[in-house]
């Protein structure tokens, strides 16, 4: 059983030899092509073609008797083992002749031959870029940070800021120095002269509550109670956060309560590990950062009075931008002349303030204010200290 393929108008038609045997009776009406051996010249069929026929089927053209004609081109060998096939002709159809020309197709032996030839552009020059990496022999140890710092110091190309001084402020509750973590004890708040408390240490004390303005009430009361209470975790004094279970006496520092895995709730209550519910709870609070404005409510008048009563002070008292250096004093014979209906003028009073400069716009300078005695009357002295200028001293008999 052999097949043959004819190519007409770029369309391939495959005919089987079995069809030829089946339609052997129609040899008179449709002639078939004779079989040819492998090395014989293949026959060529000639047909006539007309474009004005609308019912023409190009794929099924009737084949006429072959006409011997001289070859117009060198013989082309078809693939072996193919035979001619028969095509049924349509009755009432005009006879046309079509000249079949086999399409030349080269058979390449490799894939490299099928690639199209590359174009050669004129005026183009290509350069080859090569990278060479040199690896030192032996073990290479990268320099550490200290060696890099020393090298940069020798070069003098860097400006290193001065080291930040250590924060020696200590919380009165947990006794830890410096500001704490944001999601922990948080920042330090001033309670009194050189007395500091962590925000969450004070906020989570049992007596303390927060007002709508952000003031913490009863911090001093919680501090006095904490001086007599011992923590269940670290066994140190100053514990103020107790378990809210009825008749439970377990009490902790805020930082120790976190370490002991106590459970905190959004309504500012806490349960110790013995009484906390198992698993997670809807109202459980796991993040303790406080970014709102919070301060300790205190009586500043009483605080200033306590500073005056102490006499010798090792600390500086500041209210806003006003810094008190010395409060001064008044003798009994000076009481009549060194006061007014609204204020007292103690001799030896000294304070400084940072305020806008009198010489330059958008710059600040230091004003040192003091009260002296002259001819039995107060003398108010203001000393202007500004960088790049000599100190300017202003005096008058009234504070205005």
From TrEMBL:
Give the transmembrane ranges: none
Domain of life from the UniProt record: Eukaryota
- Example GO molecular function term? zinc ion binding
EC code(s) of this entry: 2.1.1.364
Single biological process term from Gene Ontology: methylation
Residue ranges of domain PHD-type in the record: 168-276
InterPro entries, per the entry: EPHD, FYrich_N, Znf_RING/FYVE/PHD
Instruction: Recite the UniProt keywords alphabetically.
Output: Chromatin regulator, Metal-binding, Methyltransferase, Nucleus, Repeat, S-adenosyl-L-methionine, Transcription, Transcription regulation, Transferase, Zinc, Zinc-finger
Pfam families the record matches: FYRN, zf-HC5HC2H_2
Query: What PROSITE patterns does this protein map onto?
Result: EPHD, FYRN
One GO cellular component this record assigns the protein to is:
MLL3/4 complex
User: Which reactions appear under catalytic activity for this entry?
Assistant: L-lysyl(4)-[histone H3] + S-adenosyl-L-methionine = N(6)-methyl-L-lysyl(4)-[histone H3] + S-adenosyl-L-homocysteine + H(+)
Query: Where does this one sit in the cell?
Result: Nucleus
- The identity of this protein, by name, is [histone H3]-lysine(4) N-methyltransferase
Q: Which organism is it from?
A: Hemiprocne comata
Give the gene symbol: Kmt2c
